Every structure is written in structure tokens, then in C-alpha cells.
Amino acid sequence: MNLSELIRQKTYEKPVLNLRRHPFVFIKVTALFVLIAVLPYAVYWLAASTYPEIFANTLVYIFLLLGGSVYYLGVWLFYFTEFMDYYLDLWIVTNDRLVNIEQQGLFARTISELDLYKIQDVTSEIKGMVATFLNYGRVSVQTAGEKERFVFEDIPNPHEVRKNIINLSEEDRKYHFKDTKVGL
Amino acid sequence: MVPISVFLIPYGLFLLLFLFFSFVNIYHLIRFTTHGAIVSFMVTVAYAAITVIILNATYLEIINIDWSRTIQLIPSFGPPSF
After folding, report:
1. Contact B69, A125 (CB under 8 A)
2. What is the pTM of this model?
3. pLDDT tens, A120-136?
4. ipTM
5. Average pLDDT over chain A, rounded to an integer
6. Contact status of A144 with chain B (Cβ, < 8 Å)
7. What is the DSSP letter of A175?
8. Strands A97-103, A109-115: parallel, antiparallel or unpaired by DSSP?
């Protein structure tokens, strides 16, 4: 599915920004899963050096073998699911609207849209040492609609994104309200 | 007394569950990716490759076990010896 199909692009609409979370966010998840994957080896080494005789028992060996296989397949599946959650979360800024696509687990996907001319306030923030060095953070968009805040989490260059959204919002507001001014 | 191959049944059920959720993930990847078929293909191949490595390592150990051997699930308690 390409981008225009995903957002049902209108004829006059042009995508401006296509944003995902900063890759460092997923690197943190990867480091955690590497730690979880290494854990059984540490436990095995500890058990083998303390109680080596338990591994001579066939039943124990089978439990460890099948249990280890289940453990690693489970860890791998969870890691892949986390990757899908990271990769399929997307924020798209066009010259007409904001589109927020969130994959929430395996069986839930939420897509929200927001017209640019309805935006009242845009806030960008970077918090933390690593986020400051890598320049990623969150952008919150405030409107008068039912969903008060539209949040872009952990995106690269949040201050630039905020400026872009504000500029696009002003252009879109001029486009939408020019006819009413002429009517007056 | 049961053959130790009964322990392969829950393992097989887990594998079915694993395959089901793997296909769901791959379906989402193919349906909703915005980077084209090549990215979906590469990610799917990488995922399948690691899965095959884990399953192969398990298989190489499983084939060395004599699964026809029987074990007593409930231990029997004989008369006490003095």
C-alpha cells in the first residue's frame, strides 16, 4: 500500500512530512531483547557450574531443550511484534491535514485525521540527555475538536516539524477563509 | 507409564500458535508498509531466517533423543525398607 492509498490522498493534496519515531527508540528495545536472549546462557552457565548432574537426566534435558526453543521463539516473535508496532506507527503531514496512524498491538489500528486550518496551538519539546544529543522529542497539536491533542511521539527534529506545521496551518487557513472575506 | 514423545504435543501446539501470530505480523507488514514490496520482502526473509535457525537448532537436538522411551509420570511408593 503506498502513501497516497494509505491516506486516501485528495487531488490537491501533497505529502510534506512522513514521520516515524526516531530509530534510537527502537535501538533501546533491541538492546532489551538482546539482554533477554542472553539471559538463558547465563542461567545455564550458573546451573552447569553449580549442579552439573541435573543435565544428565533425560527428562530435565528434554524440558530444557523444548523450554529453550519455546523461550527463544517467543522472544523472537515479541521482538518482531515490537518492530511492527514501531514501523507501522506513522505521522503524515500534508498541505491539507495531519494523519496519525497508530498500530496498537496485533489486532488494533487507529487512524486519526486533523485539518490544518483547525489547529490552534503547536508545542514541541525535547526532554532528556540522549534526546537532546540526538535531537528527537514530541510535538503536540491542539485543536478545538473532540481530540484535544494530536501527539507525535519521539520524532526527529521536533522544533523544525513544529515550524513546518505552523506554516502549513497558516497557509491552509488563508486558503479556507479567503472566500468568506470576499463574501463580506 | 507414558512415552516421552507426549511432551512434543504442547510444543507442537506452541509452534502452531507461533506460526499464526507470525502470519498476522507479516500480513500487517505487507498490507500497511509504505516503503514498497522490497522492504516487506527483506523483513519477511530476515524474520523467517532467524526462525529457521532456532527451529533447526532445536531439531538437531531433538533427533538425538529416543522418543520411544517411557517414563513414569506419577512416582510409585513401594513398602518402606528397614
Report:
1. no
2. 0.84
3. 899 999 999 999 999 99
4. 0.85
5. 87
6. no
7. H
8. antiparallel
